[in-house]
Structure formats: C-alpha cells, structure tokens
Amino acid sequence: DLYRKVFVFRKDPSDAYVLLRAKLEQPLQNFTVCLRSYTDLTRPHSLFSYATKAQDNEILLFKPKPSEYRLYVGGKFVTFRVPEGHRDWEHVCASWESATGVAEFWLNGKPWPRKGLQRGYMVGAEAAILLGQEQDAFGGGFDVYNSFSGELADVYLWDAGLSPDKMRAAYQSLRLPPAVLAWKNLSYEMKGDVVVKPRLRE
Description:
4% of the residues lie in helices and 42% in strands. It has 1 helix and 15 strands, in the order E-E-E-E-E-E-E-E-E-E-E-E-E-H-E-E.
C-alpha cells in the first residue's frame, strides 16, 4: 500500500524506472491517467510511458519544458501550455476517448481547453508501463536525458473517461472508482536508483 508514500528518483540524469503491472483484457477505447509529480527539472522528462510492441508512444505523458505538457496517443501528440510551476507538487490527469478523439487535460483540479487526436484509434492492451523513463522500444530504449528525477505519487490508470467530479476527486485524493492501475494497491517493480519514502507534506 503506497498511501501517503512517493517514489523518489534520486539521480539526474537517471537510469532508474518503475515497472507497473496492469491487468488489461482488451484494447482501450478510452483511458484516463492521473499522477502527482514534484521536480525542479527544466529539461524534457517523461512522467508516464505506456508502450506496445507496435508503438512505443502508445500512451505517453511527457513534459518537454516547465510550461508545457504533451499527451501522446498512438505516436501522435497534443500540447497543453501551462503556467510554469512554483516548485510545488503538480497533479495532472489526461483522458482520451476514441469515439470523438477528444483529449482532456486537468492540472491541479482544473480543466484546460480540450484538444483532439487519433479519432477511432484503439490503444493496444499488451503494454510495458513505466514511470521514470520514456520508452523508445517495448520496455527499453531509454534516453537518460528524458528521464524523470524527483518525486512521483498517486499514479492511476482507468480504462474509461472520468467525470469532472471524479477528476477533481483525484486531485483532492478522495475516493475514486476502481482502476486498472491504482496507487493504493499498485503492482510494481523498482529498477535502479529509486526508493519509496513517506510524503513530506500534503
């Protein structure tokens, strides 16, 4: 149980990562991914990397610079421009639905203008899911200068879009619907220089 705990990626640049195990029965027509990060990195870094054998950026949440997030679906991406962080925890949720190709992005409990990509696409179910590195091949092909350094917590993946109430609940750490990946009962394996520590502050 990772309640009130965080992954600390201690080095910069880093070769560490956390491998997550999800039980996905079928391809995803919708998804929502949420997580909390705390870093002083200004270089590009990966937050959540979901790769299939056919597509290394099947789902990727990536921060190319402090004022920008990118959401990739099936190798294509949309950009969400954000205010530069105040060196504090940032909570993000990104969701996508195949039927409309609409992507939602929420930062610290607030929605950004919606964007569109990959209408009609299906996200493959057989995936390598990693925190801390960006995959350029299935389960590997890392570039240390896209690695994450800092603290990550509250990682969730749903095989559905979340309602606005649930998006806000994720930000506030309230009760959430059952998830494919859930922080409270995460199945994970740590590789390299990453440790689990209690959260220092709320």
